[in-house]
């Protein structure tokens, strides 16, 4: 006869037996305080723990979330004299937060000075650098690394051996001089896009409206902070979109994977080049600048002794040299149009008087004609 006592005993045995085979709950600290984790499983560390304690499950370290460690991703960071600081430290932060193994490499182990005086001694030289999945190539003063035949040969070989090459900013020129961008689209720092196109005619397209361009093995990014976008894209490819978005959230970076870049498209490509457009000797103080992929506006306080007509005439002469054609003229304004491929762009330049004699508000707008 089965009694309530028998039923309760049976349920207890089932519960105990099940607990022996069920994995720890999400966030459990089965290796708390240990320095190893079970082989074949992801391990986690606390970002700011100097002891580097390792856990076998995700969770928290005070206010910090644990990050993965030992994921297998290895990143080699190319160093050279005059490397742009944010070009490699920004992506290094991303890869480090993702738990990657990171090391630096240069032609020799001599200490290199990056922009703003940061001195870095490479971990390896070209002869003894271990293999890596990702090769990170920053921009900056790229002459040391880009123009040496021996350095170019190493770069070509290393590209063949790597799964991904991430070139940030003018790091695209390093790849270009090594012939690694031939037959591919590429981008770079917005102010250098026209020079990239001129210097490497075998590039299929110089892209001015993207934060990064992924061609498979080789990824090039726009300038400076765009290296963070490129590194997040690598994490997206390597681990998945959720991990990349979560990582961006963790470092408080507003990452939009498909974001277009207005700086290359408009700010440095279609807006006037101010030093050449503003008449010499006139006062100039920019106080407003804003836009997106279809429009951009700059406003400035200007001052001059000539008439508004003369001032605008001088500006117009310079603008016409930048491939614009004039379409309209008023006493205090000028309008222009420019064609690029299948797009038309309109520009307006207008002056407005202020209460101060000889001082004006200048507004310059560039707008896609269809908008």
Task: Describe the 3D structure.
The protein has 371 residues and is an alpha/beta fold. It has helices at 4-19, 85-97, 143-146, 149-161, 171-177, 193-199, 226-239, 241-250, 262-267, 274-277, 308-320; strands at 43-45, 54-55, 60-61, 64-65, 67-69, 74-78, 101-106, 112-113, 119-120, 124-125, 134-137, 164-167, 185-186, 205-206, 212-214, 218-221, 283-291, 295-303, 325-330, 333-340, 343-353, 359-368. The protein has a seven-stranded mixed beta sheet with strand order 10-7-6-11-12-16-15, with helices on both faces. Strand 17 and strand 18 (295-303) form a beta hairpin. Helix 2 runs parallel beside helix 7 (226-239) and helix 7 packs across helix 8. The protein is elongated. The termini are far apart. Mean pLDDT is 87; it is low at 9-39.
